[in-house]
Amino acid sequence: MGIVVQKYGGSSLADADAIKRVARRIVDIKKAGHDVVVAVSAMGDTTDDLVDLANGVSPLPPAREMDMLLTAGERISMALVAMAISDLGFTARSFTGSQAGVITDSVHGKAKIIDVTPGRITQAIGEGHIVIVAGFQGVSADTKEITTLGRGGTDTTAVALAAALEADVCEIYTDVDGVFTADPRIVPTARKLSKVSYEEMLELAACGAKILHLRCVEYGRRYGIPIHVRSSFSQLEGTWVVSDPQTSGPSEEDTMEQPIIAGVAHDRSEAKITVVGVPDKVGEAARIFEALAEAQINLDMIVQNVSAAATSLTDISFTLPRTDGQVAMTALARIQAEVGYDKLLYDDKIGKVSLIGAGMRSHPGITSKFFAALASAGVNIGMISTSEIRISVVVDESSVDDAVRATHSAFDLDADEVEAVVYGGTGR
Ligand code: ADP
Ligand code: ASP
Ligand code: MG
Prior knowledge:
GO terms for molecular function: aspartate kinase activity; ATP binding. ATP binds at residues 7-10, 174-175, 185. Catalyzes the phosphorylation of the beta-carboxyl group of aspartic acid with ATP to yield 4-phospho-L-aspartate, which is involved in the branched biosynthetic pathway leading to the biosynthesis of amino acids lysine, threonine, isoleucine and methionine. One of its GO terms (biological process) is homoserine biosynthetic process. By secondary structure, this protein is α/β, with parallel strands linked by helices. It has a domain at 3-250: 3-Layer(aba) Sandwich (Carbamate kinase), CATH 3.40.1160.10. Helix content is 32%, strand content 24%. The chain is built from 12 helices and 20 strands. The protein has helices at 16-31, 46-57, 63-87, 119-126, 154-164, 198-206, 214-223, 284-294, 325-334, 336-339, 366-376, 400-410, and strands at residues 3-8, 35-40, 92-95, 102-104, 113-116, 130-134, 137-140, 146-148, 170-174, 195-197, 227-231, 239-242, 263-267, 270-279, 302-304, 313-321, 343-347, 350-356, 383-387, 390-396. The strands form 4 sheets. The protein has an 8-stranded mixed sheet with strand order 3-6-2-1-9-11-12-10, with helices on both faces. Strands 5-4-7-8 form a 4-stranded mixed sheet. Helix 5 runs parallel beside helix 7 and helix 6 (198-206) runs antiparallel to helix 7. Bound molecules: adenosine-5'-diphosphate, aspartic acid and magnesium ion. The site of aspartic acid has 12 residues, from loops.
């Protein structure tokens, strides 16, 4: 029997009873004859609480210390899950990311996994133990410092372990029954997708559908690991993320044609910065974005207005993670004299709504239908960006829910009967 790699999110580990329930599920797999490796997240909203605590102490905590603090959340879970397993008469060994051989680059707060050397895991498995790994963390190959993989990163830990251990599948256990056509917390009539392609899941995750961490999907695709997203609160089959839903994953009775639209995603974690009055000449944009790159900031949408003829000045707006807002503003302020722009504007009361579907490539009229749905819901569009299989708009933060619901209905994604159950979590 092969190795089973599972991941339990914070919403599945909210308290002592939840931890005991998860331990029983893990032990059942072991009893069925499998070797089990489990990546765990911090309990409930622990990570958010630790972030709040840090911000209460310092407005801009040093990134290294932030990682030291946040990794403690997953260490609490791993030890408690191992204890609950031992209480059921099985032995478990918990390991930090570093002990488990999760090697990363040295970027604190959003480190990338560059290698997994699971020697201690395979040794523990060989000795008959169930292995519990603290998710969302690793150790930098260069600096030897402890790093974190970015919010939601335990998904990536799990898929990276599945790849390193050559598991057939990685199971992601959460508080909903799978990947739905929209966040069931906003659209109760959202439908569960039985399968979705890596390609569409990458866009959904990149656009804020926090059901899966973006890099976990990238990892799964690169190493060909099918990801099975399902609920830890039910026994239902979840959503399979695979390369080609037509040919891979479990087969269904009726092999339907793939739907045009996979789903609607939303994101409330971004902010918008506008650099006002940038001289319209060669090299200005390059200098601005060089400063942001040096500060390790990932940008999302970028819009440059046509410069006003009278002034030859232009405005450049872009979106970025809110958590990087202060660092970006500081980096840009530093180059104001050099670039010669007028001022900076910061807006974090924005949200992004995205429509995703591989069928967009071959079906015209999707954009007009999307924008018409937003218009009829009274939602004003601030910025627009597209890829081959996605259209995203920036809207006012207060319009996000209306925009998601209107779009979901306009594309006939609503289920006739409510099938989405949110079993736990606070949605934070
Ligand atoms: P975990 O604690 O298990 O990591 P998360 O809170 O990170 O759980 O992710 C699960 C949540 O993702 C769900 O409770 C749901 O609110 C949200 N979500 C957003 N978009 C979707 C989607 N398209 N399908 C399912 N859940 C979604
Ligand atoms: N505990 C971390 C977070 O809340 C990592 C994770 O849950 O995947 O983001
Ligand atoms: Mg998560």
